[in-house]
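Thread: sanity check for a docking pose with 2-acetamido-2-deoxy-beta-D-glucopyranose

Original post by kr_44:
Hi all, I'm comparing my docking run against an independent structure prediction. Below are the sequence and the ligand SMILES. Could someone generate the full complex and paste the C-alpha cells? I mainly care about where the ligand ends up relative to the chain.
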Amino acid sequence: MRLLYPLLLVPTVLCSSLESRKFTLESRATNIDGSLPTYKNPEASIEDRIGDLLPRMTLEEKVSQLIQGDINGWMSALDDPLDNTLSFNQSGLEEMMRLKGGSIWGGYLMTYEKFVFAVEVGQRYLMENTTLGIPALIQSEGLHGFTNNGTIFPSPIGLAASFNRDVVKSIASIVSDEAEGLGINHIFAPVLDLSRELRWGRVEENYGEDHFLTGELGFAFVSGIQDGTRRNVTAGRSGGLRKRMAATCKHFVAFGSPMTGLNLAPVVGGERDLRSTYLPPFERACLESLSMMTSYSAYNGIPTIADKNILTNILRDEWGYKYWVTCDAGSVDLLYKQHFTCETRECSAKATIENFSGEMGGGTYTYLTLPDQVKAGQLDEKYIDETVKYLLRVKFTLGLFENPYPYPDYLKTIRTSKSREALHTADLESIVLLENRKNTLPLSKDIRSIALIGPQADQVTFGDYVFFNATLNGITPLGGFKQFLSNSSSSTKINYAEGCKLWSNDESGFDEAVNAAQSSDVAIVMIGTWSRDQTLLWSGLNATTGEHVDVHDLGLVGAQLKLVQAVKATGKPTVVVFVSGKPIAEPWIHDHADAVIQQFYPGELGGLAIAEVIFGAYNPSGKLPVSFPRDVGTTPVFYNYLKGARPMTDFGTTTDNGTLVFGHQYVLESPIPLWSFGHGLSYTTFNYTDFTLNPSTIGPTDSFNVTVTVHNTGSVDGQEVVQVYATDVFSSVVTANQQLVGFEKVQIPAGSSS
Ligand SMILES: *[C@@H]1O[C@H](CO)[C@@H](O)[C@H](O)[C@H]1NC(C)=O
Ligand SMILES: *[C@@H]1O[C@H](CO)[C@@H](O)[C@H](O)[C@H]1NC(C)=O
Ligand SMILES: *[C@@H]1O[C@H](CO)[C@@H](O)[C@H](O)[C@H]1NC(C)=O
Ligand SMILES: *[C@@H]1O[C@H](CO)[C@@H](O)[C@H](O)[C@H]1NC(C)=O
Ligand SMILES: *[C@@H]1O[C@H](CO)[C@@H](O)[C@H](O)[C@H]1NC(C)=O
Ligand SMILES: *[C@@H]1O[C@H](CO)[C@@H](O)[C@H](O)[C@H]1NC(C)=O
Ligand SMILES: *[C@@H]1O[C@H](CO)[C@@H](O)[C@H](O)[C@H]1NC(C)=O
Ligand SMILES: *[C@@H]1O[C@H](CO)[C@@H](O)[C@H](O)[C@H]1NC(C)=O
Ligand SMILES: *[C@@H]1O[C@H](CO)[C@@H](O)[C@H](O)[C@H]1NC(C)=O
Ligand SMILES: *[C@@H]1O[C@H](CO)[C@@H](O)[C@H](O)[C@H]1NC(C)=O
Ligand SMILES: *[C@@H]1O[C@H](CO)[C@@H](O)[C@H](O)[C@H]1NC(C)=O
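Reply from moderator J.T.:
Ran it for you. Here is the predicted complex with 2-acetamido-2-deoxy-beta-D-glucopyranose included:
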C-alpha cells in the first residue's frame, strides 16, 4: 500500500519508509486494507510491533511517553488515605494522558479499592479513548514491600545479611504478586548502590558494601519481581520473552559513594573504579531487568544522566541493554541547578534525551520543551524515537497491550499465608549474632525473668520506603517476646522499661531500666537508629537514617550508650541488640556487652524473630553485608580494600587484627573494623575439610570450582554460609586485598556434614 496523503500536511508524522505505510493519518490505528495493525497483534514479534507502532505516533505522543505522569492527576490520592470515594477528575485525566501518559506514578496509600479504580480508569481511558490505545506503566516503590500497603519485609540491608539468594528471590516474588493484582506493573527496585560511604543515609536500601554479593542478590531480586507472565497474556507464536512486572535497577551508577557522605554529592573515581567496583553488580543483575534508573550524582566530573560513556558506550553498546532507562525524580533539572553543566532547561532536556533516558516527576518537566526543540531543528528526533522504542519494548514484553488492567480478585494475593511464611523466614535469616561471650545466648525457656529495655524494645522500626502507618502492621519486640513465651508455655517474666528515647539526652528513665535489670536474670537492651518517616514526607528529618538523612557520626544518638552502660553496671548479663539501618560505631559495646545482635530494620515479624533467636528457637545464620567501623573517622572500612590501605608489618604483610605497627595507623584509634563483612556467629560450630580447587591453577579469565565438606560439629542444627574469597597475589595494578567470589548457604543438622 502507498501512503495516500501529501507529506506537507503532516509535519508531525515521521517520514521514514513511506513505501511501506499501511495507514493514513486520519486513521492511524487501523490499516488501510482492513488488516489488524501489527502492533495490536499479540502473535507478532515484539520488534515488529514496535516497528509498526512508532511511525503511527505523533511527536507529541512520543514525548508524552517519555515523561512520568501521576495518578494524583485524576484521583485525589493525597487526601485522607482512608477516604474511599470512587470518583475521578475528567479534565485532569485527559490532560495527564495527553502530556505524561507513558508511565504513571502511583505509589500512594489509598484503599486498595480506590487504587484499583484509579488504575482501571486510567488504563481504560488510554486503551479505549485515545487514538492508538497505548497502555501506561503503573509504578510504585518496592524495595522491601510495595508502598501501597503491601507486606513489609526486612530492609534490603537486612535481606542481604541473609546471604541467601532464595530468600531474596522469594520475597521479591511476593512483592510482585501483591502489586500485580492491583494493576501495578513497574517496581522501583532493587537498589544496587554499594554501602562504602556509611555516613550516607541510604545505606539501608542497599545489599551492603560488596559488589559480588550485591550482584548476586540483585539478580535474585530482579528474577523474583519479573519472572512469569501476566494473566491472559500468552507468549504468542513469535512473541518471544514475556515478563509479568518490570524491575528497576538503580541508581546507575556509583551513586552510593558521595564524596561528603551527603546525598547527591559528586562521586570521585575513574574508569578503573567504575569497571571493577560499581558496574559489576549492574552487569550481573540487570541485563534482563526491564528498566534502570540513573543516579543524581556526577561521576568523575560528568553528571551521570548525561554521561555518554556510561549510558551509551557501556550500557547500550557494550552490554546491549535494550530496555527503559529513566532519570530519578527531578534529576534532569539538576544539570542547570546543581551540576551547572547546562544553563537552561532546554539544554538539560536535550543532553539527557540524547543519552536515551526518560524524565520522572518531581522537577519542572523539562521534556515538555522537546517538541519545540525538534521543530526548531535543535534536536534530532531520532533520539526521541530510540528512547520511545526502549519503553515500548517494556510494554510489549509485559503484554500490557493485551491486559493492562488490575485483577478483579486482587485481594486474594495480598497478605497470604505464603507471604507470611516468606516474611518470617526473611526476618529470621537476616539477624546477625555478632558477639556471644561465655555462651550467654541462647537463653533457656526456663529462665525466671528477662529485662527488656531500650527505645527499640516496644517500637516497630522499618526502613525508609514505607508509607503512612505501615508500622501498625508490625509486631514490636515486646509483643514478639510475649507471643513467643506464651506460645512456648513458658513462665518467664518480662520486665519492660523504655529507659530513654531514641533521640533525646534525657536520662530520667534510667532508674526504671536499672531496676528492671536488677530484678531479672538477664538484660536485653534494644537501641539503634530510626529512619526517615515517609508519612511526614520531608519533615521527619530528626531521623538518623533514610533518604536525605546523612550523618557526620556513626555512634549512638542521645542517651543510648549511657543506658547500656548503666544496665551493664548492674552486673547482670547484658545482651545488646542494635536495630538499625547501618553499622553503629560503638567500641565500648563491642568490648563490654555479653552478647551483641545486629537486626537491620526488619519486616513485619521482626519483633517475633528477635525473640526466637534470643531463646534459640532459631539458630542465627546471618552474616554482615557491611563492616562496622570503630569510629566514623576510620571510614571507609570495607573489607575488600586495595592493598596497602590497612596496617602493614614491614612491607607486604597486612595485619587485620589491629596490632599497632609503625605507619598505617591512626594516632588514637585503630583502622580495623569492630566486625567485618561476612562475620556472623551461630549457636553451633562448623569445621571445613576436603578442600579442592578445580582447576588447581586459574588463569585470568578462567572460571573455577571450589568444593569443601562442612561439618556441623556442635549440638544444634544450623545454617552455614560458605564464603569463597580470592586474591590476585601479584598484579600489574593494585588490586583488592581479598574479594568474595562465591557463597552458598547450607542447612546442616547437628553432627552431619554437607
Ligand atoms: C494512622 O495511625 C493513627 C494512630 O494509630 C490513626 O489515628 C490514623 O487514622 C492512621 N492513619 C491512617 C491513614 O491509617
Ligand atoms: C481537575 O484537573 C484539572 C486539570 O489538571 C485542574 O485544573 C482542576 O483543578 C482539577 N479539579 C479538581 C476538582 O481537582
Ligand atoms: C493496610 O493493610 C492493613 C492490613 O491488611 C489494613 O488493616 C489497613 O486497613 C490497610 N490500610 C488501608 C489504607 O487500606
Ligand atoms: C471514553 O469514551 C466513551 C465513549 O465515547 C465515553 O462514554 C467515556 O466517558 C470516555 N471515558 C473517559 C474516561 O473519558
Ligand atoms: C550525552 O552526554 C554528553 C556528556 O557525556 C553530552 O555532552 C551530550 O550532549 C549528550 N548527548 C550525546 C548525543 O552525547
Ligand atoms: C482474563 O480473561 C477472562 C476471559 O476473557 C476474563 O474473564 C478475566 O477477567 C480476564 N482476567 C484478567 C485478569 O483480566
Ligand atoms: C507456636 O509454637 C509452635 C511449636 O513450637 C510452632 O510450631 C508455632 O509456629 C508457634 N506459633 C507462633 C505464632 O509462634
Ligand atoms: C523527633 O524529635 C521530636 C522531639 O525533638 C519528637 O517529638 C519526635 O517524636 C521525634 N520523631 C521521631 C520519629 O522520633
Ligand atoms: C596480629 O598480626 C601480627 C602479624 O600477622 C602478628 O605478629 C601478631 O601476633 C597478631 N596479634 C594478635 C593479638 O593476634
Ligand atoms: C571436623 O569435624 C569432623 C566431624 O566431626 C571430624 O571428623 C574432623 O576431624 C574435624 N576436622 C577438623 C580439622 O577439625
Ligand atoms: C564446575 O562444576 C560444574 C557443575 O558440576 C561443571 O558443570 C563445570 O564444568 C565445572 N567447572 C569447572 C571449571 O570445573
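Confidence is low (pLDDT under 50) at residues 1-19. Hope that helps with the comparison, let us know if your pose agrees.
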